[in-house]
Amino acid sequence: MKRDDHPMPQLAAWEQGAADPASSIDAVLSAQRVEKTYRNGTRALDEVKLEIRRGEFVSLLGPSGCGKSTLLKMFAGLEEPSHGHIRWWGKNLATVGTPDRTLAMVFQEATLMPWASVQQNVRLPLDLRHMLRTESDARVQEALKLVGLDRFQGAYPRELSGGMQMRASIARALATQPNLLLMDEPFGALDEFTRNKLDADLRKIWSEQDLTVVFVTHSIYEAVYLSSRVVVMAARPGRVIADVPIEAPGAGGMRDDAFRISPEFMGYCKILSDYLTQANQENLEGGSHDTAHH
Ligand SMILES: Nc1ncnc2c1ncn2[C@@H]1O[C@H](COP(=O)(O)OP(=O)(O)OP(=O)(O)O)[C@@H](O)[C@H]1O
């Protein structure tokens, strides 16, 4: 589907109330029996129950139309559930952002301003917050360094490759120092080599920060390489069918190229591939509602 160029969300929650008592104390996000039916009658999500804990890297994997983007937009506060609740930051807080608990979103397109330099693009969300120049300068430098673009801060988007534009987009998100990073197929349009490199760099950034990531992808390989947990979804209606922790080497940090050709990696790919086959079969047959926990 077409992604819109949304500003960083500054939304208050639509409902205060008691959180699910089962929700764990370190939950950064929790979807509690979330349903979504769009105005045209499309039932995008059906009773999704999902919890994302602090420090996790969770990928949402599933066929086209299973509601991955819809769920991510609800996590960002850009869409409201038709039924159920989304909770942010544990039991008591039902708002998307507070000064010390923020989220940022990265879309499939880099969505950079073409007339502004890399540095100006990355600074934009900080300018919108009226941050002092000395502080924003430091943040921009740090973010550009993290994504390996520090030598390109004066460049304009048209002068950058697709991969570099995506790095700038990630830097713009990181400059806000988010606790939660939501990424909607950010590397889907890149060639495989660039994608693998960005995956490796993203994994490193995640492992070095106090950062929780929810990442939407169609790629089994990308999901296994990046994630501490992969949530598999099926369509019609969109729902979670499996929740697979990736407990392979490097779970606490770096995953190197050797991991990509290891038996553990292949094993996880096989498990996820079987679930995706099941997801596609259920699409054809009308669906079942059990969630597998691997
Ligand atoms: N604004 C909207 N209005 C109506 N229907 C929508 C809207 N956005 C998404 N949908 C529908 O909701 C369902 C889920 O869409 P969504 O984009 O969340 O799926 P997805 O898993 O992210 O798909 P893809 O991988 O192709 O991006 C699809 O049937 C889609 O056509």
From TrEMBL:
Pfam families: ABC_tran. Residues 29-260 form the ABC transporter domain. It comes from the Bacteria. Keywords: ATP-binding, Cell membrane, Membrane, Nucleotide-binding, Transport. The keyword Nucleotide-binding applies. The keyword ATP-binding applies. Belongs to the ABC transporter superfamily. This is Nitrate ABC transporter ATPase. It comes from Herbaspirillum hiltneri N3.
